[in-house]
Amino acid sequence: MNQTEIRAGDVLLGLFDREGYAPLEPPVLQPAEIFLDLSGEDIRRRMFVTTDADGTELCLRPEYTIPVCRAHLERRGAVAGAYCYRGPVFRLRAGETGEFRQAGIESIGRRDVAAADAEVLALALEALDAMGVAPAGVKLGDVGLLEALVDALQVAPAAKSRLIRAVVSGRAQTILAAEPEPALVEHAGLLAAIEGQDPQAARAFVEDVLAIAGISSVGGRSAGDIAERFLARAGRRDAGLGAEARQVLQAYLAISGDPDEAASRLRGLARDAGLALDGALALFEERAGFLAARGIELSALSFRADFARNLDYYTGFIFEAAAAGAADPRPIVGGGRYDRLLSHLGAPEPLPAIGCSFWLDRIAAALAGAEPARDDAMDGDGA
């Protein structure tokens, strides 16, 4: 870690301490299964994994949010807490070290959701200013609003999960633009069985089904070739939606603008489509009000309905910002709300939570006018 990273981290920790975030350094070794279950595909492929003497699979922490949440539950259970951190995270990165440093905050248990969202974003922007880094615009999204829309359209649970994952991975328009293939509709049961499996497991499952059916080759193609073609076609299938629902979702994903402009367009879409989104839209507008009350110019914020960060545990408000004028367009800070994560980790009752994470190497590079080493697949990691 160079001196610029150290100074940037010191500024962050001083600001976090002023706001009442207690320092926490969770163990570097973490249970691998938790990240495999709860994090996005990028982290799953890039973790450093080992086993202990009992054969339990462990990993070097690839991000801080899950370790901080685990530590909170061990210490305080369902009691609210606010934490800050600075330290190394570990992920496989081609051609460069797999260890780099992040700093950030996690706010756990606050029930005033809109106010907490606004506080974390406001603190992130204040931190950038304190470090002397100007953001190149701030992108906002809302996974909770997307979920509310999909629920209002009465999308089946499996199709809902598939659609939200497609938005997160940037494939939503490909799925929504296509009519379902008749052959895939006929094999809906097989598709449901492989839903959520990683590609290798899904291929092995399809090959097993073919083997049970006594099929080794068709038209010169092996069982493996057949499985590959089936999975490729399955990846292009639609999200199990009717034409009207696809049109509404396409219109939703095209909405962008500052929070006030976006709210007006979102209410118009809900009205025209006859969808009950009052609760999600009220939260969206309340959050904008708290941001304005903190002196943040809403016109400087850019909401995009199709914006997502590549971690599976986000449930609501999300944001990120890159450095203005930097050669590197990747975010230097990003975060969001993850209200279901602590329940997955064993919380005795639901605990709302939100946090954000700063990339110290990217911040140091922005301050130095240089470009850090690339890590393109992991723009959305951390809180």
Describe what is shown at a glance:
The protein is an alpha+beta fold. The chain is 48% helix and 19% strand. Strand 5 (81-90) and strand 6 form a beta hairpin.
Provide an overview of this structure.
The protein is an alpha+beta fold and 383 residues long. Among the domains are: 3-144 and 313-378, BirA Bifunctional Protein, domain 2 (2-Layer Sandwich), CATH 3.30.930.10; 180-237. The chain is built from 17 helices and 14 strands. The chain has helices at residues 3-18, 32-38, 41-46, 65-76, 113-131, 143-152, 157-168, 172-177, 182-186, 188-194, 199-212, 223-235, 243-253, 259-273, 278-293, 341-344, 360-368, and strands at 22-23, 29-31, 49-51, 57-60, 81-90, 99-108, 135-142, 217-218, 221-222, 256-257, 301-304, 317-323, 331-337, 353-359. Helix 14 runs antiparallel to helix 15 (278-293). The radius of gyration is 22 Å and the shape is globular. It starts with a helix and ends in a 15-residue tail after the last helix. The relative contact order is 0.18.
